[in-house]
Specification:
The protein contains 7 helices and 15 strands. β8, α3 and β9 form a beta-alpha-beta unit. The longest helix has 12 residues. It is globular.
Length: 288
């Protein structure tokens, strides 16, 4: 029997997996990468998906101390404030979020009161930091490349929650063409993950199933090293960078990148309301 358990929740719209990871003994838990439902056509938000996660937490009488963000997502809005309000959970992200905030404050010409100092979050994790919850030891590994602030959360040296850094082996790795992304940096981050024992489980944040299979969310370091289509053993940094850059050149921007980034660099909070009490998101033209 494992000393912790993992429950995955799939948001079909963005093909995002959120996770509740809980200590079997104490029932202390964390929520990783929760999704706020967002209808782009109407501009309406909903907490339906987050409420299903909350129901699971309450049914199992868990205590949630943290919402852990792997990075500032570009494909869905974060539901972190929902769990902060309902459960008193703290919201944590990588310390390099400051760099991401600075980049996108300029892209979106955000209000002067928005400071790119990370203060919107309850805690900024540094590489190597350890969070202890019951018998769960969560080690933070800085794995940039997709964005400067990407983190992997390694629980009890057994399970790595990698965000967008890696996908299932038949899908490959994260794109590196967003502002602040870098394929060489991602290669170095992947080497950090591949240095973990081959039996280490890898939980992905997204899955885009290839033909003939359903959504999957867990693989292993060994499987990734053996058959990841972008970065399996034997692939050099030069080969990876060339392959990643060629692939990125064919990709469209994510459907929700413009609303997502504006919200997620604020720890999931919406921009401040105007003098009428209404909240707006910006669409910068010809910048991404």
């Amino acid at each position: 029997m494992s000393d912790f358990q993992v429950q995955a929740f799939l948001d079909n719209d963005s093909e995002t997996f959120s996770y509740v990871v809980s200590d079997v003994v104490t029932k202390q838990a964390v929520v990783i990468d929760p999704v706020l439902d967002f209808d782009y056509k109407s501009g309406r938000t909903s907490t339906a998906g987050a409420e299903s996660i909350l129901a699971y937490i309450q049914q199992n009488q868990m205590t949630v101390g943290w919402v852990l963000e792997t990075h500032a997502h570009a494909d869905h809005l974060s539901a972190a404030p929902f769990f902060r309000e309902k459960l008193g959970a703290k919201v944590g992200i990588g310390a390099q979020i400051r760099q991401v905030q600075a980049i996108f404050k300029e892209v979106f010409n955000l209000e002067k009161e928005f400071l790119p100092n990370g203060a919107q979050f309850d805690h900024l994790f540094e590489d190597g930091e350890v969070l202890q919850l019951g018998t769960m030891q969560i080690r933070v590994i800085h794995t940039p490349g997709h964005t400067p602030a990407d983190l992997t959360y390694l629980i009890n040296e057994k399970a790595a929650f990698v965000g967008d850094t890696l996908f299932m082996p038949d899908v490959g790795t994260a794109r590196c063409d967003f502002p602040g992304g870098d394929a060489s940096t991602l290669f170095q981050s992947l080497n950090k993950l591949f240095a973990l024992p081959k039996t280490t489980q890898i939980y992905v944040c997204h899955d885009y199933p290839t033909q003939g299979r359903e959504h999957e969310y867990v693989t292993t370091v060994g499987e990734q090293r053996e058959r990841n289509i972008h970065v399996q053993d034997g692939i050099s940094e030069q080969q990876f960078v060339a392959k990643r850059q060629a692939r990125d050149a064919t990709l469209e921007m994510p459907r929700l990148i413009l609303p997502s980034i504006q919200v997620n660099i604020r720890a999931g909070h919406m921009p401040p309301a105007d003098e009428t009490g209404k909240v707006y998101l910006k669409i910068p033209l010809n910048q991404l």
